[in-house]
Specification:
Elements: H1 5-31, H2 36-47, E1 51-52, H3 53-60, H4 64-76, E2 80-85, E3 88-96, H5 98-114, H6 123-145
Antiparallel strand pairs: 1-3, 2-3
Helix pairs in contact: 1-5, 2-5, 3-4
């Protein structure tokens, strides 16, 4: 099978982009004594009320057991709370504490501050990139769903 060089280049650029954004994200997380996973959890919980463990796992793209460990450690650090629902004692809801919210706001502000130069892209160029990446993501999801 002959490999299309444009496809190869797209895949390599996606990987390079992911590596660079992860470096930036990791640097901001460690600056605040957090892990990347903890930052993701803080972000999800800042936008989601009464999140279950299963919902959280799905939103941060890891398994339930991994999420459970993350939640336990974050609760011990005072960043989140776990509470059982009054009407369903089996279901646990996870929420941010005031400390968790403050931490998230600091990390988010610094992270997006570091990425501020991306706003210098011309508006038309930014829109074009968004449209192209959306199309590419949709195509990759189709490939994944079809098991190819």
């Amino acid at each position: 099978m002959e490999i299309d060089e444009n496809v190869r280049h797209i895949v390599y650029l996606l990987r390079a982009t992911r590596q660079q954004t992860r470096k930036l994200f990791y640097a901001q997380a460690t600056k605040h004594g957090l892990t990347e996973s903890w930052c993701l959890v803080l972000g999800v919980l800042s936008r989601t009320d009464n999140c279950s463990l299963g919902q959280l796992a799905k939103l941060i793209h890891v398994g339930n057991s991994t999420t459970s460990g993350i939640v336990e450690r974050m609760a011990a650090a005072g960043l989140i709370t776990k509470n059982r629902l009054a009407n369903n004692q089996r279901q646990v809801v996870i929420t941010l504490t005031a400390k968790g919210q403050e931490t998230y706001e600091r990390v988010q502000q610094e992270y997006w501050g570091v990425l501020a130069p991306l706003a210098d892209l011309p508006a038309g160029k930014a829109t074009e990139i968004i449209e192209n990446l959306t199309e590419l993501t949709t195509k990759l999801e189709e490939i994944t769903q079809n098991g190819k």
